[in-house]
Every structure is written in structure tokens, then in C-alpha cells.
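It is worth pausing here to work through a concrete case rather than discussing structure prediction in the abstract. The textbook approach is simple: state the sequence, then state the predicted structure, then interpret. We follow exactly that order.
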Amino acid sequence: MTESADGAVQLDELTRIILAPNPSPMTLEGTNTYLLADPAHDGVVIVDPGPDDDGHRQQIESALGGADVAAVIITHHHIDHAEAAGWATEWSAPLRAFDPGLIPDAVPFVDGEQITLGGLTVTALHTPGHASDHLCLRMDPTDVVLTGDHVLGRGTTVVNWPDGDMTAYMASLERLAQAPGRRIYPGHGPTVTEPQAKVREYIAHRKDRERQVLAAIADGADSADAIVEVVYADVPEFLHPAARKSVQALLEMLVGQGRAPSTLSPAP
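Step two, the predicted structure:
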């Protein structure tokens, strides 16, 4: 990997990354904005422009070096990925996302659709779970997958109930496990160089949490908060609200499967 003066890091022959200045416990070092370009063709595809931050935009435009933006693609509607989606209009570029209802002015990018821009072929994989509109993006020429928040470079993601859905998340992980590519470029954190192992680790983690939650219920935990106190006792308390989201999503799944009491069904 090589870093240029504008802060863009070259990950492979077609992909550069610029880190947005929005670090936090949930975003790790910040949002990864990806610039996809084939040197033999004109135009750059930007994935997840991230926060509406002037300095971040200046970095992106410096990295463009005068090249046109062929398209802006949003993996999902959360603010740390999509707040700057409106830059597409200012760049005279089409904006693509799974659900235009969540990303205003976007053109739908539906599951299985392929777009070819600037010599690049990008395939949309609808991977709901973390968010209902979540997309992973397969870069066919390099066999890498941009996973947004579906799989992170470090740690695990939150299933952001009620928009997030645990049943959908598990199914989406299994789908990705069938063809995870040779590398994963996540929305936060470092590149994943062993994607098959990482996705299987994510599946195992969720199944382990499921067992822990069922055990907590058997021991008398009668609410999402009570479950979080037991199952996430080793997690810093400031992360408990995020953990509660995942627990609520899991409870919704377990109640629907008849494996947990209906009294634990979360209310929106």
C-alpha cells in the first residue's frame, strides 16, 4: 500500500481509500471512503463519501486530480456513510443506493445489478441486517468485496434494530460466506485479508451471542436491558445502548421462531 500526498492510500490497482475524520467507538478510526478507478479509463466511482465535512471533501477532490466522478454509491443510509451523498449532485454524478426512500435523489441499485463505469464492473449485493437498505459491492475485476458495515475490519457490527433485522443479517452473512472474495474492504477498520475466516467468525459470534441470550433468559432475565447487563457485562457501559439494539434484534428473531417468550418481543 502506498499513501499519496492527499492522504489517499492505494489498496490495489483499482482501489484507493481515504479515511474520513469521524473516529468514534462505533466508527473505529473513521469511515472508509473508497475511490474506484481504472487507469486506462476516465472517471472515478466514489463509495460512501461519508460525513459532510469540508476537509474530507477537499481530500477527495485532491485525490481525483481533476478526473470526473462517474458515480457515487452509498452502501446504506446511516449518517457516517451517507451524510455527504448530496455531493454527487455538485459533482454532476449519478447517485446510486438500494433504497431511494432513504437516500434522497438516488437511483435504485438493486440486488444482482451490475454497473460498468469508467472501465469498472461493480455488482450490488443486497445484504440487509445491519440496515434494511444495506449493500455490499463486489468488484469483479479484482475479486474484492466492499462490505460497508456488514463486516468490519475489526470488531463486530451492530444489528441496528428496528431497521436492522437479525434474521436477515444471519442470512446475509451466509450469502457472503459463499463468495467472500479474496479480500474485504470494510466501511470501518483495516482490510480483511482472510475474508472466508472473517465471515465465519462473524457467524460463529452471532450464534454464540444467541446461546448466551437464551441462557440469560433461562436464568430469569426478562428484558433486553437485563440481558445486556448479563451478556455484555465485559463490554464498556457506554457501548450498552448499541448492544441493546442487537439484543432487541435477536429477541425479535427468537420470539418469531418460538424460542423465547412473546413477552420479550421488543416494541418499536
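Step three, interpretation. The radius of gyration is 19 Å. DSSP finds seven helices and 13 strands in the chain.
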